[in-house]
Specification:
The protein has 291 residues and is mainly α. 81% of the residues lie in helices and 3% in strands. Helix 3 packs across helix 8 and helix 8 packs across helix 10. One of its GO terms (cellular component) is plasma membrane.
Length: 291
């Protein structure tokens, strides 16, 4: 589940970076502050987010993630102490939101024609080129979306962690939850930062004198765009896996049925819960979107 959560976060951040890339290309002279950083917008890059913007975007989401943990850890302890029955319903609301996000992406992909996508892109380009458009607010809005997703996934992991130390003294619970929150945030966003900077690593290697370094760098540069696209697809699937998993775990009858089907599946049992959780996630996402 933690691996799926990471893929969801990477997908969200990749989407943010794509949107910021468009802004960076279209607004060459506009500069402003965003989340404590300077948003330097110019037309000097070929594709993707300029190197200076990639890490600030990831850092902005990481800071939001830390704030999420500062809210979630004491809230989880308070809910567990006074209204423990509320944990599962809250997680299910978050799971339903993830399923909705995933299904919305699917609907946009399959229900919109190429012409409609091009028209939307043209409208976005026109809006970004408009001097009246606040690009800082645009980027902040995109980053807030990734932080919202992080909040849901962090709540899930905090709840799971709390369940493992539910019988421990309060001091130990605080230490464990805080430690997991810090390590998880640093580890996840450190990895995300490394992934989004792969192209820079490839470029750096191609500029080295050795032929081996040039070959490896070239391979990384060729593979990086495809890897980000594949991560986007996998990240969308992970939304259904994580969200559907939360929902099925919250309904005991469904959860036990999945366990029984898994047990009777023999050697293929490891993939059964993933498939059923994904199906549940797709159905839930459709219901939320239509509703």
């Amino acid at each position: 589940m933690a691996g799926s959560s990471l893929l969801v976060l990477i997908d969200d951040i990749a989407t943010v970076l794509d949107d910021v890339a468009l802004m960076t290309k279209m607004a060459a002279k506009k500069t402003a502050g965003v989340l404590g950083d300077d948003l330097a917008l110019n037309a000097q890059q070929v594709s993707g987010v300029r190197a200076e913007r990639e890490l600030p975007v990831v850092w902005a989401v990481a800071k939001g993630s830390f704030i999420n943990k500062l809210i979630l850890v004491p809230s989880a302890l308070a809910i567990s102490a006074f209204v423990p029955w509320l944990v599962t319903p809250l997680l299910m609301v978050g799971g339903a939101y993830l399923c909705f996000e995933g299904f919305e992406k699917l609907a946009h992909k399959f229900l919109h024609s190429k012409a409609e996508d091009q028209a939307e892109h043209a409208q976005l380009v026109e809006a970004v080129a408009d001097p009246a458009v606040d690009l800082v607010a645009f980027e902040k809005d995109k980053i807030k979306g990734a932080i919202r997703t992080d909040f849901i996934l962090s709540a899930e992991i905090i709840a799971i962690t709390l369940g493992t130390v539910a019988d421990a003294p309060l001091t130990q619970q605080v230490i464990v939850l805080s430690g997991i929150a810090i390590v998880m945030t640093i580890g996840v966003y450190g990895l995300v930062a490394g992934i989004v900077k792969l192209d820079d690593l490839g470029l750096w290697l191609t500029q080295k004198p050795g032929q081996a370094a040039k070959s490896i760098g070239g391979a990384i540069l060729r593979a990086a765009p495809y890897m980000m696209k594949s991560l986007s697809v996998i990240g969308t699937a992970a939304m259904f896996l994580v969200g559907g998993g939360i929902l099925t775990h919250g309904v005991p009858v469904v959860h036990h049925w999945i366990e029984s089907v898994t047990a009777s599946a023999g050697g293929a049992g490891f993939i059964v819960p993933m498939l059923l959780n994904a199906v549940a996630g797709i159905v839930a996402g459709a219901v939320v979107l239509v509703g």
